[in-house]
Amino acid sequence: MTLDVPVAGMQGHANALECGLSLDALRLQVRALLPEPGRALSDDDNLIESGLDSLHVMRLVACLRRIGVAVTFSALIARPTLAAWWALVTPAMNAPVQREAPEPEPGEAAASFPLTDVQHAYWIGRRDDQPLGGIGCHAYLELDGRGVEPRRLEAAWRLLVRHHGMLRAVFDEDGAQRIDADAVPPMIAVHDLRQAGPDRLAEALDGIRGRLSHRRLRIEKGEVAGLELTLLPDGTTRIHFDLDLLVADVQSLQVILRDLAAAYARGAEPPVASNWSFARTLTREEKRKAATRDADRAYWHARLADVAGGPALPLARLPEEMKQPRFHRRIHRLAPPAWNELRRLECIAGNHLSCLQSPHVGAVVSRIFAGLAA
């Protein structure tokens, strides 16, 4: 079956499923995530081949779970068609999923709770005694705009910090985390460069970027994110935002930016319940995973002998010799035909693009190293 939905009808796609779960609502939600939402789409078309990526699938899982449908990312990505997803969703509609954040237990806000495996790796890696350590796993963004008002931005940021508990997280020396219920964000720094000439302007902006892009936030004191504003000539502005990824993944970073924009524009509070608890979520996930943990462990033990090792890196120096590492992002953009061919191969192989790219990157790096060593 093919469903043609006018692009103009997509304005409310974010809440399509929340208005009532049906096959048509699922179609509408999925179509809105595609790069070409107006194209004809069959229920049996491969959605990955049609442009859906793993992050889109993660968002869909979160949306479905919010309305009480217990599905997993792995189940959806294994058979990425609308027909297969509806077959999965239908029996899962009655599975128990906690949809609302319960009232916190007495003393819960101040209680410490353990780090996840990924958090623990980040926490160890930022220490000075680690190779290539001394720096956090950290995101830094610059958002250019016009006419951003400092006080209004600060009020929006304070609203977010008050609402999102993980923006008030404190990490102790024993590798545990807690939420500081009384934390108050500092006033945002405002840099007034409206009268600066070109040379001074470039120097000042480079200085701010150099200071913020590689800083190690003081997570032990609850400093997990920062916000600064630069006023530029001709009414333009630049927001400087940095965040330690101990408290947010890439999708959560997008949520923070979305909520900051809504709080600035309308004074709107974030849609998620203010008493949502990361600690409770982790506890719930641990219980959910317990049923399959033995089977998962057995699967990976059986696969260990076939898992490829890491690439031989072309090292100019030993990592242990580098005292103040600086990281730079390298970007290479593929032309649309090459990218589409990669997506076609991804579908044939039944893998995500990241799984397809990783071994190729490793092979290229190893080949470069072999050439340097020859």
Please describe what this structure looks like.
- With 374 residues, the protein is an alpha+beta fold.
- It folds into 3 domains: 7-92, Non-ribosomal Peptide Synthetase Peptidyl Carrier Protein, Chain A (Orthogonal Bundle); 113-281, 2-Layer Sandwich (Chloramphenicol Acetyltransferase); 330-365, no CATH class.
- Helix content is 42%, strand content 10%.
- The strands form 2 sheets. The chain has a 4-stranded mixed beta sheet, with helices on one face.
- Residues 1-14 have low confidence and may be disordered.
Topology summary:
Layout: H1 23-33, H2 54-66, H3 73-78, H4 82-92, E1 113-114, H5 117-125, E2 138-146, H6 150-163, E3 169-171, E4 176-179, E5 189-192, H7 198-213, E6 225-231, E7 236-244, H8 250-266, H9 278-290, H10 293-303, H11 336-349, H12 353-373
Brief description of this entry?
The protein has 374 residues and is α+β, with helices and mostly antiparallel strands. Helices cover 42% and strands 10% of the residues.
Number of strands: 7
Shape: globular
Largest sheet: 4 strands, mixed
Query: What Rg, in angstroms, do the CA atoms define?
Result: 23 Å
Number of helices: 12
User: Poorly predicted ranges (pLDDT <50, ≥5 residues)?
Assistant: 1-14
How do the SSEs run, as a string of H and E? HHHHEHEHEEEHEEHHHHH
Observed structural traits:
single chain; 374 residues; alpha+beta; Non-ribosomal Peptide Synthetase Peptidyl Carrier Protein, Chain A; 3 domains; 3-stranded antiparallel sheet; 12 helices; disordered N terminus
